[in-house]
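Put briefly, the fold is written as integer tokens. The lines below illustrate.
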Amino acid sequence: MWKKVLESVRRLCGGRNPDATPDVEELAREEEFKARLRERCARFRRLLAANKNALEAMSDVEERLTGRRPFGMSYVRAVSTRSTAAVFQMVRELNALSENKYAGLQAAFDRIRQEMESMLSRRISVADGPLILPLEDIRLADLPQVGGKMANLGELAAGVGLDVPVGFAVTVSAYERFMNCNGLRDELESRIQSTDMRSLDALFSLSAALQQQVLTAPLPPELEEAITEAVERMRERLGPDLKLALRSSAVGEDALGVTFAGQYRSELNVLPEEACEVWKEIVAAKYAVTAMSYRFQHGIPDDAAPMSVGVLAMVKAAAGGVAYSRDPVAAAQGLERVALNAVPGLPQAVVDGTVTPDVFIFSRENPPRLLEKRIANRQPGQATAAVEKAMSASGPEHGVRGGASLSDAQAATLARVALALEEYYSEPQDVEWAIEAGEGRVVVLQSRPLREAAGAGECSDAAAPPAPPPPGLTVLACGGVPVSPGVGMGQAFVARKEVDMLSFPAGGVLVVERARPRWATLLPRAAGLISETGGMAGHLASVAREYRLPAIFSLPDACRLLADAGEVTVDASRNRVFAGLQPQLLADCVAQPDLMAGSPVQERLAALARLMTPLHLLDPESPDFSPANCRSLHDITRFCHEKAARIMFDGEAGASRRMGKQLKAGGKLQYWVVDMGGGFTRPVRGSVVDLAEIACAPMLALWDGMVAVPWAGPPSAGAAGFMSVVFESAMNPELESMAPNSMANRNVFIISARYMILQARYGYHFCTVECLADDDSHDNFVSFQFKGGAADRERRRLRAEMLAELLENHDFRAEAKDDSLFAVAEGLDAQETLQRARLLGYLLIHTRQVDMIMLDRDRAEALGNKLARDMRELSQRPLPAFERRAH
């Protein structure tokens, strides 16, 4: 036995002193410590993995709050769960590493998690209130119960004295009663939460299932009775031939800062005995594809848009349409005008975009002056008998000329109505109206804020008319009505049926025969919109302006002309469609809007973010650096990481004190190396290890990349870049403290023969590199986490994106979120894995402090090209024979 011990001693001592007396107890203690270190390293790795997941979730939250991508409540709940689960694991691993030294951290975590769960569980609901409200009793204050459409209708009847239809509202309380009956709400929410709302396939399937559930659910008896009795009272008042219009009036329309134009359902000419069933159909239509997609794009959860329904007496209309008190398209060019769109009969054809309406343009003076009139080319007989009768009854001065749906005098009256409503509500109005047959009475059917009146898709010189197009462009189609200004480019795609939605390419130009509201589902993915019918007052036009999507309507033969056009450029400012992509026309146009801004979902995420992302614990040496002062998940991750690193690498029990060796490699930075077994070529006594004594292939590969190309030092920053660093260092409270401490300049490798993890800090930059390069390629990986910098946030973000792009060119899966980068290459053989580790070593050295120049486009591009060139050359260079060092 002693012989074996002596052989072990000779191996550990490298054979230099075969006569030395072994200290068996010391060897045993060292092996025991190594076993504990392996266990600690396993826990530390799990803590780091959880830290990565937590920081990824927090970075994703910050990125989502910028408004670049839409998200729903399912994302809010998922990211909350992901972040709390990761932080919980960090707390558990730290307490295991420290023998429960930081038990108070669990209490801080529980407090923050409970606050987050409380925010997520809050439901927007108005359950208490009457089931029915007569229209004559409704005012703006009733909006939470009856929605904006019915609240405005009741208000303008009482406050302005305009004629409105007779009717009542089935309230939000009635809707809540129905949704809570038989567990319907919980079942719908469960299905919504489990569906990827970005997938049109999934959305179509979900829509069909949800609508079927609503339609087959029974009405609460008291609700059915209330609707039936209210309808009967209307019949007693208006006569036995009563027909009804049931119109959606969801809470959230207009009040949430979005139009919801055409996203919900209305039904006309409903028989009184069918009112209850049709009410249920309108509630079910809340879950139509177009409505759910619209709410998702705007960050409106299902519970933030409860449905009220207006039940109104049908108006026998001679003509109908929409009046804009401020023309939204002209406003984008600095012009002040009133715009009317009109058709014979009901206004439905205007808002549905199924026909090309008559257009009347008036000045905004008192009285309004007719500036322009465009009468649509309708086929003979399209002006209904009711129109002819109403116009002849109005006298010759009010009669229809040339097939127009309105006389000039009637149009002027409607312009005055629109301006009067703008004055009453103190903002531009979108007014839906009808002229009653026989009496010629103007009946207001709806008035809502015209939120798009400020101009959408406008260019930098909004007041100037568009210049002539550059010479040499091929015009594929021209004419029509510009309903949303701007320029868009993409593949022309003609859609004729609903199923065509599934084939629409992202970034395409949508071309349709009729401007129906259902096409709104595709607008967030489109670069432009063209329709053969419709006008600027249609629902689809309103949504296009809301999305700042260039759109031309009533463009003759558009589907035929563009069916095989390929890539096209839509210029809605000049009413032309050009062949090919013409980026020179895009120069002055503004970015897409943030559709999520101010939405309930975004506000909910922002509230949660205040418990997740702020960093208050800045200085590890401060007495305030304690569990009791952790006010966010970020604080807890910072505390866990700092304390775990100290346990591993610092203090009396730390690996770097007990077994860490300072690396002798001529570098200016301090690197410490901890061997878990097999990482050194021989036992190393003393406090220093030479690079020649390292046997860890991943560490040697990383180091080879760090020294492969001499570093020329940080780039010389311009004044803006330098001042950005100075300003951020002085003013940004979330930058890590640079106060001297025992860990400030200590960069630690933990190694074995085939495994390495590096924790490094270079100034304000933090990075972790981990690599396993074994014979089994299935387990091999090399990962890189990077965060920080002292320049402003935009420069740091651009650097992270540059690093991600560089690594993706070498088989890494990389994701940049804000100033953080997460990259990994997996499943490669040992040599390929080591090759990627070497590339990371190169980047570690050569991307220090480059954030200062990232807003200098030319210098940043030159730097990116140099880094790419060096990495390409380095990847072609054979690896040194690292394995030969292993003992």
About this structure: The CA atoms of residues 219 and 532 lie 42 Å apart.
